[in-house]
Amino acid sequence: MAILSTLVSWKDLPAVGACVLVLLLLAVRAGIKRRQASVGAATKPTAHSTKTSEKDKQPGEWVPVDFEYPRLEPSKEHFSTVKPIPYRPFKWGDYHITMGIRSMPWDEWFEFDREFPQYHRVVEHRFRTRGNRVASVHPEQPGIVPSGQAAAEEFMYEVSEYLSRRHPYVYRVTRKPVSKKPDENGWYGEGKIKTITLVPFNETYDLEKDEPLRVARMLVQEDFALMLEGTDGRYYLQAGAVVIAGSWRLEDKLGMPLEDIHISGNVPQYQTKLHTSMDRFFRRFPLDKPVIRNNYSVQLVQEPQTPVPDPDELAWAETMNGSEDTSEFERAKHINDQVDATPAEHAKREGYPASRTNTPVTPRTVRLRSERQTLRRLPRTGAVVFMMRVYQTPFEELMREPGVPGRIASAIRSWPEDVARYKARDAYEDILPLLDQCHQEQIEQGLVKEDEKKSNFPF
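^ that's the sequence the OP posted. Answer follows.
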């Protein structure tokens, strides 16, 4: 007080006090902003490496990158309380074939919901009955592309790190001691994960001993494929766990380059609309910009007479495709021939049961099968992870959703002939008049407007 009194008179003290208070508030505010900026910087992905510039990089060359995954906010939701996300990725009007990608939020790499236990049972049954046919690593293709084993191991650790941080109430991990070698540690300099426990299912996996593809697949609801760049600049499917794909098999595609996967699968307009843009996307795909896309198909299923492990034909669309053990050549020929074939010819074709043509087409037997697909590049091996999360919804549920019956009927009718063939429209198109009727009833009830043709894609 003595020092202050030598500078100002007592009557000036209130004004001085106000000035001091303002200065203190400004200082506190500046400090908060600095801390916010620091936190913001920590949540952004960072990547450091000694690799050559992108222009100098040769096809098939990848130097490991020191990449830090953005910090994750632990989820407070347990999957048992989460409803399946109602993806409805179809639109009114004309059909367009595009990649249709958008940015993926870092905390949404995986999606979980209350159907996880059923998916888990199906996946466990598939591993037990089909083994390496649904999860496998392709060996090195000498001079072209390395084995997918290193990518599979990296992916398993990335999955375990993410899950234990994003969903700590569901996944519990043990770690090794911190190593003096940074590349032998886990995320953020912590010890490398040794075991991970899926707590609700009481299942523990040893990351040093168990098979990486199976571990990663048993932990989540997504299928995945690991693509590696070859010396010819093409991306090869060198490892994956494709367990519930429905209409394609890993054993047919493993080791193939990207374009052969699509061409052999009779993907409509791939050569004219997708080939160039897809190749360019994979070549330029950066570490720090993961993406999402959605697609859909329609599936006819039989109502099981007795309990079965997979009543909705989630893993394999047997009603549509016949036996999963039908050769790829026969299945591909079936896709190409089905438009011109009569119902009798369909029923007679070897490997394709009459169930495809004699299963009643009703809201209970027709399913919307939608996929949320994500792509992310891994920092150590440079592999591109393509993940597929399948959602199935009976049409009897869709028909109760305002605006959806009319929209999906419009979408199905909009398919060009090659797309209609690929999506096997002839198997379930008898549902269209019922969708039209539901749409008209929704208009009469005031749930939708007759001229309303908008949607919030992909919902």
